[in-house]
Design goal:
- Helices cover 26% and strands 22% of the residues.
- The protein is an alpha+beta fold and 171 residues long.
- The protein has one domain: Cytidine Deaminase, domain 2.
- A six-stranded mixed β-sheet has the order 1-3-2-4-5-6, with helices on both faces.
- Strand 5 and strand 6 form a beta hairpin.
Length: 171
């Protein structure tokens, strides 16, 4: 599904986010040979990417886009902003076209213990934003130098749910 509706209009989530006045620059990479054995699978490699996300620099948001089976297609990189919503939306618009799934990594402080109400609400909000673009946000990893947290696996209402779930009704 394209980020634009059949009539060419942006979804309401996108229209609301356009009101931001800050410039957000998104860099990205696209797989040029999808048949290459070098192409990773996000379903399998998401956890190792947590450990590597800092290689792209501090205070970054990375969003990996994939097919429903997890085959990686594109990666977007932008600076962390507060709130993160406009940066995530910019990644969706710039490189999300045609993707069915996404996993995001945000370099931010991670607190020990249960996830905060704010982080749980943020994950739900960003899943809705991605869904309005036809993309399933499978997980959101918060990462710092010492630890990381998966929003999906720490979600209080979904214990034991299959981690990789892509498709309708996933928000």
């Amino acid at each position: 599904m394209d980020i634009f509706s059949a009539s060419g209009e942006l979804p309401s989530t996108v229209l609301a986010m356009q009101q931001t006045e800050r410039e957000i620059v998104v860099d990205g990479y696209t797989v040029t040979d999808p048949e290459s054995s070098e192409v990773g699978n996000l379903r399998d490699d998401a956890w190792s990417l947590v450990l590597d996300q800092r290689a792209f620099g501090p205070r970054k948001l990375l969003v990996f886009f994939a097919d429903a089976d997890g085959t990686m297609r594109r990666m977007a990189i932008t600076d962390r902003v507060e709130p993160i919503d406009p940066a995530f939306l910019a990644c969706l618009i710039h490189l999300g076209h045609g993707a069915e799934a996404a996993v995001a990594y945000l370099d931010e402080p991670v607190q020990l213990g249960a996830p905060s109400k704010e982080s749980t609400e943020r994950f739900a909000r960003l899943r809705q934003m991605a869904a309005s673009c036809g993309i399933t946000l499978v997980d959101w990893f918060s990462c710092d130098d010492d630890q990381f947290r998966s929003a999906r696996l720490s979600h209080p209402l979904r214990p034991g749910e299959d981690w990789w779930t892509v498709g309708a009704g996933d928000s």
